[in-house]
C-alpha cells in the first residue's frame, strides 16, 4: 500500500516509507519491522494541553486526541486519570503505546511539544535542529519561559478561584503585589516583538504556540495586568495567530475561553 506523506509536514518521504523508516497508517506509526506505535494526547478543557493539540494540527501529526472537562470549572474529571493511566491526573499527557514495550507517559506541555516536533517534524522551522543552534535555543528558551516565569499569574488566579466575597480586598491586594513581575513578563515579550511579526523574528515557531496560551491567560484573566493598550504588539500578535487554521481547528473540539478575538 502506498501512503502519501508529502502534505503531513513531516520532512522527506522516500517511496512508501518515511526516511526514518516509518510508515503511517490511520493514526498509528508502523516501523518497517512491523512494530506498531500509537500516540494519544489526553486534553483537558481550558488547560495548557491547548498548546499541544494546536501543534499537532499545525503539522498534521498522526496523534489521537481525547477530550475531558473540568468539574465546576476547576479540577479535571476523574476519567482523565483513569483513562490515561497517569495517576497525577493532569493535562497535557501524551501516552505512547508500542508493541512489546511498556506504556510511556509524557507530561508537561513544553516536553510534549518537543517530543512531537522531534518525532514528527524534526529540524523544522517550528523547532530548528542543532545545525541552527541559536534558533533552536531561542525557541526552547521561550517555551521554558512560558512554563516557568510566565506563571507569576497563577497565584492570583487561584486566589480568585478559592476566595470568598468578603475576601475581595485581600484578593485585590495580592493581585497588585504580583503586578510588578507580571508586567515585566509582558514587557519582555512586547520588546521581543519589535524584531518581527513573531516571537523569534520572521518565522512562526513553537515559541509562539507556547507563549500564546500564557499571554491570553494573563490578559483575559486581568490578574494584575491592568493597563489597556500598554502591550499593543502582544495584542496584535495574539489576534493574528488566533486566526491560524490550526488554532481554529483546535478550538472545534477543545474548549478554550482565553481568546482575544472573542473579546475585543
Give a written overview of the molecule:
By secondary structure, the protein is α+β, with helices and mostly antiparallel strands. Strands 3, 4, 5, 6, 7 and 8 form a 6-stranded mixed sheet that branches. A two-stranded antiparallel ribbon has the order 1-2. Helices cover 44% and strands 14% of the residues. Helix 1 (49-59) packs parallel to helix 3 and helix 1 (49-59) packs across helix 9 (245-253). The protein contains 10 helices and 8 strands. The chain has helices at 49-59, 79-84, 109-120, 133-147, 154-162, 168-192, 206-221, 232-241, 245-253, 260-263, and strands spanning 13-14, 17-18, 22-25, 28-31, 36-44, 64-68, 93-98, 104-107. The radius of gyration is 20 Å and the shape is globular.
Tally of individual helices: 10
Bulk shape: globular
| CATH arch. level architecture of the largest domain | Up-down Bundle
Distance between the termini: 49 Å
Tell me the Rg in angstroms: 20 Å
In round numbers, the mean pLDDT is: 84
Beta-strand content estimate: 5-15%
Largest sheet: 6 strands, mixed
Helix/strand structural class: alpha+beta
Fraction of residues in helix: 40-55%
Regions with little confidence, pLDDT below 50 for 5+ residues: 1-22
CATH class categorisation of the largest domain:
Mainly Alpha
Our count of domains comes out at 2
CATH fold topology of the largest domain? Glutathione S-transferase Yfyf (Class Pi), Chain A, domain 2
Order of helices and strands: EEEEEHEHEEHHHHHHHH
Total strand segments: 8
Question: What's this, in brief?
Answer:
The chain is of the alpha+beta class. About 45% of the residues lie in helices and about 15% in strands.
Amino acid at each position: 500500500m502506498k501512503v502519501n506523506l508529502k502534505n503531513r509536514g513531516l520532512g522527506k518521504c522516500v517511496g512508501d516509507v518515511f526516511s526514518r523508516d516509518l510508515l503511517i497508517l490511520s493514526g498509528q506509526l508502523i516501523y518497517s519491522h512491523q512494530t506498531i506505535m500509537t500516540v494519544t494526547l489526553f486534553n483537558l478543557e481550558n488547560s495548557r494541553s491547548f498548546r499541544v493539540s494546536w501543534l499537532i494540527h499545525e503539522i498534521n501529526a498522526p496523534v489521537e486526541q481525547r477530550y475531558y472537562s473540568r468539574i465546576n470549572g476547576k479540577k479535571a474529571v476523574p476519567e482523565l486519570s483513569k483513562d490515561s493511566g497517569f495517576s497525577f491526573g493532569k493535562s497535557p499527557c501524551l501516552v505512547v503505546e508500542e508493541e512489546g514495550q511498556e506504556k510511556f507517559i509524557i507530561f508537561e506541555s513544553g516536553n510534549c511539544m518537543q517530543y512531537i516536533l522531534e518525532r514528527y517534524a524534526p529540524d523544522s522551522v517550528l523547532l530548528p535542529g542543532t545545525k541552527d543552534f541559536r534558533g533552536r535555543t531561542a525557541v526552547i528558551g521561550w517555551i521554558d519561559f512560558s512554563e516557568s516565569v510566565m506563571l507569576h499569574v497563577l497565584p492570583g488566579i487561584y486566589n480568585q478561584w478559592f476566595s470568598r466575597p468578603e475576601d475581595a480586598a485581600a484578593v485585590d491586594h495580592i493581585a497588585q503585589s504580583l503586578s510588578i513581575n507580571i508586567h515585566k513578563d509582558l514587557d519582555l515579550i512586547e520588546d521581543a516583538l519589535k524584531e518581527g511579526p513573531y516571537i523569534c523574528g520572521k518565522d512562526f515557531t513553537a515559541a509562539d504556540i507556547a507563549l500564546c496560551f500564557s499571554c491570553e491567560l494573563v490578559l483575559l484573566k486581568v490578574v494584575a495586568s491592568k493597563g489597556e493598550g500598554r502591550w499593543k504588539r502582544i495584542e496584535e500578535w495574539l489576534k493574528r495567530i488566533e486566526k491560524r487554521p490550526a488554532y481554529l481547528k483546535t478550538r472545534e473540539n477543545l474548549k478554550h475561553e482565553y481568546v482575544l478575538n472573542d473579546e475585543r
